Amino acid sequence: xxxxxxxxxxxxxxxxxxxxxxxxxxxxxxxxxxxxDPPWDFDASCLEAMAAATECLDMGTGGGERLGVLVSQLxxxxxxxxxxxxxxxxxxxxxAASVLxxxxxxxxxxxxxxxxxxxxxxxFFDLVMNRHESHDPTELARVISPGGLFLTQQVDxxxxxxFREWFGGAPEAPDNRLEPCVEALEAQGLRITxxxxxxxxxxxxxxxxxxxxLAYIPWDVPGFTVADNLDALDRLAAGDRPIxxxxxxFRISAQR
Length: 256
Description:
The protein is of the alpha/beta class. The protein has a single domain (5-255), classed as Vaccinia Virus protein VP39 (Rossmann fold), CATH 3.40.50. 33% of the residues lie in helices and 25% in strands. It has helices spanning 5-18, 42-52, 65-72, 92-100, 137-143, 161-167, 178-187, 207-216, 230-238; strands at 33-35, 55-59, 82-87, 106-109, 125-131, 144-155, 191-204, 243-255. An eight-stranded mixed sheet has the order 1-7-8-6-5-2-3-4, with helices on both faces. α1 (5-18) packs parallel to α8. The radius of gyration is 20 Å and the shape is elongated. The termini are far apart. The mean pLDDT is 94.
């Protein structure tokens, strides 16, 4: 028997309410979400900078998955550098601590949006890495030593505008774009050594993948619920495959 509309809608709601993610792991969407890659290799840039640094910080380390891979590719001499990580989402902290314990990484709680100072002293780091995490330029300028580097890759706050056209609402961080971020860093005395932006595409195999993704990334459509968007979801389910949305990234390299 074919699935009724009520059954389909109930299934969609169940997908959205039960979707959970540990760390920064999109593997539950493997095969159902594909995304273009920027022309640069941010991890390679971080690895190169880490090789020359003595005190490194990975901001927003999630579950420590990415940092663990990077550290495993460095030389094995533990005396050459010390590596630290911060994470602002409390459930990720024990996961990151567990994943990174074998690498001797110091993991601390920090959320730049809280307004609290970073839990390190002035000029502590000669390298701060930040992939898709918020940051406070004033605090960065304080904890980075003279000559130290800040490397960041960010999700443009206006990406995936199609979601908001379909489901309404406004972007949660519309000012998280290249030019405002560059200006904010320069205002704190950091010198921009490289800056790029890029636009690509994310492709979802079906509407269920869209619903699950929005559960993982709720800031793309703040307040999204299945019940409030049944008409739009039905139209997507009946439309073309794959379901495409715009992806936007930018990167900045800045020196103290």
